[in-house]
Each structure stands twice: as C-alpha cells, then as structure tokens.
Design goal:
By secondary structure, the chain is α/β, with parallel strands linked by helices. The chain contains 13 helices and 17 strands. Strand 6 and strand 7 form a beta hairpin.
Length: about 475
C-alpha cells in the first residue's frame, strides 16, 4: 500500500505531466516577415541571381502558396496581419510616417490614414498571450507611436520595434541621421554589439535568445526583419560573390540587394536549425512571407545605379496594385497539418494568418487550415480587395478586386478601369475592360459595394491643383 507522501508525490507528478502535455499541445509559432521582398526574389519562386537555399528547403517542408497577397506598402499589411481585418476597414492605408504628411501639389488629396493601430483591436499577440503564450516582436513594428508600441498590443517582449519603417543603417550601432533627412533614428535594445555587426544577423540572435528563454512555455516569435528594405547595404563578401555571378539577361541585376537577400536566407536557416537543435521543430509552426512586393526604384542614397529588384514576370512593384506590388511569397510549415512540398494556388491574404494562428474568427481573414491540410480545398472566398488611395512612385490612387481569374483596377484620378485575366495574362499586359464591358461593370460594382461596407476612405479632388502647361 502506498504511503500518504508517496501518493501525493505521484499525484504531483501526474499533474505536472498533465500540465506539460497541455502546454506542448499548443504549437510554438515563428512568423518571419521580410520587408519589401518581392514574390520572385527567392529561389523557390523563380529568382535567378539570388541564392536562398534555406528558404527553398523550408518550401520543400511546407505548403507553398503561389498566390498570396499583401497590401502594397508596409504598415497596412502589418496591421492586417496582426488583426485579421482589412487595412481599409482599419483605416490604415499608407505607412505611418506618410499618414502625417500632406501634399497639396497633386491632382488629388490623399485619403486620411490612421497613424496608430487602435487599442481596441485584438492582435495575434494579444490572443496568444491570453492563451498562455510568451509573445515577442523582434525587429520592425511600424504600427504607431510610442504609446502604441508592441507592448500595448499583446507582446511580452519588444526588441527593436519602433514607429520608424527603416533603420538609418544596417551596421551596428544601427543609428544616425542623413538617410531620412535630419531625423535621428535608432534600433533600441540592441546594445553591446561591435563594429561590423549586421542588423539581420543581430535580430536573428535576439529571436533565438527569446526561443531559449521560453523554458517550455509555448512561444510566438514575430521576427520582422528590416531586410531587404532600403538602405541597400550588405556584407562585402556576399556583394562580391553576386557581382561575380551577375550576367546580362538576368531579371535581377543588383548584387548588393542579392547579398541582403542571402543574409535574410541565412537567418531563416539559423532559425530552422535552432529549432531542430532544441528538439522544437516538430512542435513549431514556421511561416515565411513578405509585407509587399519588391521595390523597383533605385536607392541612390546608397550609391545604387540599378533598380533595387525586379518582380518579373509580375508587373510593377511596391506601392502598385499590379501583381508585382501585392503578390508575396508565403510558406507555411505546420507539423502534423501540412504536407511537405505541397503547393496551393488558391488566392489568400496575409490577414488570413490571424484566424489561422489564433483560432478566433477573422473579420476579413479566413482560417487557412483547410488549405494547409488539403491545398486543393476551397475557402469559399469570392473575392480579394485592395485599396491604396495614395500616391507612390509606381501608382496614383487606386482600388482593385480579384475574383477568380479576373482582376479589376479602378484609378481615382480619371476613373480609368483596367481588367486582366490573370490565368492567361499574369503579367497584366492586356487590358480587357473594353472587350468585357459586362464583367468590368460587375466587378466595378462589387468593388464599390465593398468600399462602402468597410468604410474605405477615398482621395478627393484637389481644388487648388493646377496642371503644368
């Protein structure tokens, strides 16, 4: 017969085991978000100059989405990803620094856009923290001022997150002025570095440290890299490697950007290897994606005389609502759920990650679990919508709707309508609006109805605008 003390000890062991089982039943989650990485910038999506062996290996272990979509610039995507609500519904349609700027020299006055993610919004982090997760943001936040930093939106840990959208430099101590005018920028909580330390590497160090500090508690690590956003700066040896590899006819012609992408790929490899070494890989969801399409302008402040990247075969880039501005890579590895090497062509949005990871219904996002289990399944979604009532190097104010193979863009300045069949014309070369008037009218009506439903803010005619003669 067991003694009273032995019996109590066994009960304690059973309770501890039960508690561990309950915790381990919750998968750890690592979301790696690149900044301005184009759809075709990694090997598994067709890059030519760039080398991404670790991301490509992750793709072979994941469901690879071939038609995943973000908003066309960073803060709106990040807000949508965090909340499962469309950026237009949130009223955050441009990056937050630009939300404070007013340009009265253009044909239209840009729509108002919120600077701060409201406290009333539940985020992936707040939902997961409430269910027992350790939550950490490492890297870029870009969703509000200091009163709206990650700590106020469900993150236990914030390493590097500020209201700024890019660092002054990728080299330690990651601070200074001149890149963005006279403004002095810095990346906090990255003290005690050394000359030559590179930001992408250091943020990875910090993410791995968070994983180690979780001590058995389920964790959500949101590793939001600044790479490969401007400033286009990279390790000398990597730059020399890609410069020697460069050939005429390649889509990608920027060896410094290629070197930045390689460092990003190194980061993904380190995270994957760390999870394996800590016996966490089989209980950790790993997601890799980007916040918008690749930037196709030039970074002249870094001495660049070639475009940063090229999103071919997709049209245009960051800012635009053509495919090059909004289509992004998306890889999801969920042990026990996803099948290695699967491919899914169903159009999805990054707002879908909120209900997928939290189990809570998304207002606009849909749970991707059916597609993760069976990439040929249907989500039942009829259309995806995009709204950028602002100007950028690549666009004037515009909205768009994607329904099946068809995509309609409506430009606010002149009411121009463009219709494309993406199955036959993924590069969006042939505008079919005049040839398909009924379909064009139907999609335009659907787009107008959606803008009304979500309260999308619109640009307005500028009464003071005087066209140049």
């Amino acid at each position: 017969m067991l003694s009273h003390h032995v019996f109590l000890f066994m009960l304690a062991l059973l309770a501890a085991a039960s508690g561990f089982a309950a915790r381990s039943a919750k998968p750890n989650i690592v979301v790696i978000l690149a900044d301005d990485l184009g759809w075709a910038d990694v090997g598994c999506y067709g890059a030519d100059l760039h080398e991404t062996p670790h991301i490509d290996r992750l793709a072979k272990e994941s469901v690879r989405f071939t038609q995943a979509f973000a908003m066309s610039v960073c803060s709106p995507t990040r807000a949508m990803l965090m909340t499962g609500k469309h950026a237009a519904r949130l009223g955050m349609t441009i990056w937050i620094e630009a939300s404070l700027q007013k340009n009265t020299q253009r044909r239209m006055l840009e729509a108002e856009s919120k600077h701060d993610l409201p406290f009333t919004e539940a985020t992936i982090a707040s939902r997961l923290r409430d269910s027992g997760y350790l939550t950490a943001l490492v890297g870029k936040w870009h969703l509000g001022d200091a009163d709206h930093y990650p700590e106020t939106h469900g993150f236990d840990i914030n390493i590097g997150g500020t209201h700024w959208g890019a660092p002054n430099t990728f080299w330690w101590p990651y601070r200074g002025s001149g890149r963005f005018g006279s403004e002095y920028r810095y990346v906090p909580h990255l003290e005690f570095g050394q000359p030559g330390e590179y930001l992408t590497d250091r943020l990875t160090d910090e993410a791995l440290r968070v994983i180690d500090q979780a001590n058995g508690r389920p964790f959500f690590v949101y590793l939001a890299h600044h790479a490969p956003h401007t400033p286009i700066e990279a390790k000398k040896a990597y730059v020399e490697h890609f410069a020697s590899k460069l050939q005429p006819g390649m889509h990608h012609q920027n060896p410094v950007y290629a070197a930045m992408v390689k460092s990003l790929d190194d980061s993904v490899g380190r995270v994957l290897e760390h999870l394996r070494a800590r016996n966490l890989a089989e209980n950790t969801v790993v997601i890799f994606t980007s916040d918008n399409g690749g930037y196709v302008g030039m970074d002249r402040k870094s001495g660049q005389n070639v475009p940063v990247t090229n999103n071919a075969p997709l049209r245009s880039g960051k800012g635009s609502l053509y495919e090059g501005g909004i289509r992004v890579p998306l890889l999801v590895r969920w042990p026990g759920v996803t099948s290695a090497g699967a491919e899914c062509a169903t159009p999805v949005g990054l707002g879908d990650l909120f209900p997928t990871l939290t189990g809570a219904p998304g207002v606009d996002g849909l749970d991707l679990t059916p597609l993760l289990k069976n990439p040929a399944a249907s989500l039942g979604r009829e259309a995806l919508f995009f709204h950028y009532p602002h100007y950028y190097e690549t666009t004037t104010p515009v909205s768009a709707v994607r329904a099946g193979d068809w995509k309609l863009l409506e430009y606010f300045e002149d009411g121009r309508l463009e219709l494309y069949n993406l199955r036959n014309d993924p590069a969006e070369k042939t505008n079919l609006a005049a040839q398909e008037p009924a379909r064009t009218a139907e999609l335009r009506a659907r787009l107008e109805q959606w803008r009304g439903e979500v309260g999308a803010r619109r640009p307005a005619k500028n009464p003071a605008f005087k066209p140049k003669r």
